[in-house]
Design goal:
This protein is mainly alpha-helical and about 250 residues long. The chain has 8 helices and 4 strands.
């Protein structure tokens, strides 16, 4: 009905306004672009006016780039300007992910921000992320994956799906059990807040479907603006721009 549609439009506008205020208050700059939402592509980025060739359309400071601290210490990672700190418990999980599954590594960092909810510095950004991913190969059924008729791709999809199940049933389940045990002990000592602060996901359990969602978010949106030797990052606002073979803008 029209009333439901009006309510949805009002909610979308409120979420977008909150996101815009968050960007501005944290030092992001835009020039001639704006976010739009359509039923076909969800959120997207479009020009709001004619812009000159070579003009800078958006600037995103490091503190708004959602990533994680590199496992080798990453001397180029400045905690003072970084998006968020990475607790050792989360770093240990990230280190257990194979290097070629970089999207799962970044997905774990995203899951921490989602678990933190309103406490997350990235809450306005996380609220804009899709609740589900339509047409992502990672979520193909075995029959649909086989229908690709290209064995290397089908094998890769099976490997990623198996990784999600095994990682959720292994390291993630073990990490949650250890944190739960630690919280019980520290609640007896009256220091339970310490346990939550060190928990990778704020005390929540993470299962395969959540890890799959976060991995799909990373694989479809993340950038490696700092080069192949550094972790990928989510770039709020910039990552809603559509990819194109004949691109009209670049990210650097």
């Amino acid at each position: 009905s029209s009333s439901i549609s009006e309510q949805e439009s009002a909610l979308e506008a409120a979420v977008l306004n909150s996101f815009a205020r968050w960007l501005e208050s944290n030092g992001a700059k835009t020039n001639g672009v704006r976010m739009v939402q359509t039923r076909a592509m969800n959120w997207g980025l479009t020009a709001s006016r004619d812009v000159d060739e070579g003009a800078r359309l958006a600037r995103l400071p490091r503190r708004l780039q959602l990533s994680y601290r590199h496992d080798d210490g990453d001397d180029d990672f400045d905690d003072a300007s970084a998006s968020t700190s990475t607790p050792p418990s989360l770093t240990r999980l990230i280190d257990q992910v194979p290097a070629d599954l970089w999207s799962a590594k970044l997905g774990l960092a995203l899951l921490r921000e989602r678990a933190l909810g309103a406490k997350s510095r990235f809450a306005p950004y996380v609220r804009l992320l899709p609740a589900a991913h339509q047409g992502i190969p990672l979520f193909f059924s075995p029959a649909n994956a086989a229908a690709l008729q290209y064995p290397p791709v089908a094998a890769q999809l099976r490997r990623r799906a198996r990784f999600l199940m095994d990682f959720a049933d292994g390291p993630l389940k073990q990490a949650y059990a250890e944190e739960k045990k630690k919280r019980l002990l520290q609640e007896e000592d009256g220091t339970s807040n310490v346990a939550y602060a060190s928990s990778p996901f704020d005390g929540y359990a993470v299962e395969a479907d959540a890890l799959g969602w976060a991995t799909a978010c990373a694989s479809s949106r993340a950038f490696r603006v700092r080069g192949p030797d550094h972790p990928a990052a989510f770039l709020p606002l910039i990552d809603v721009a559509n990819h194109a073979f004949d691109a009209s803008a670049v990210v650097r």
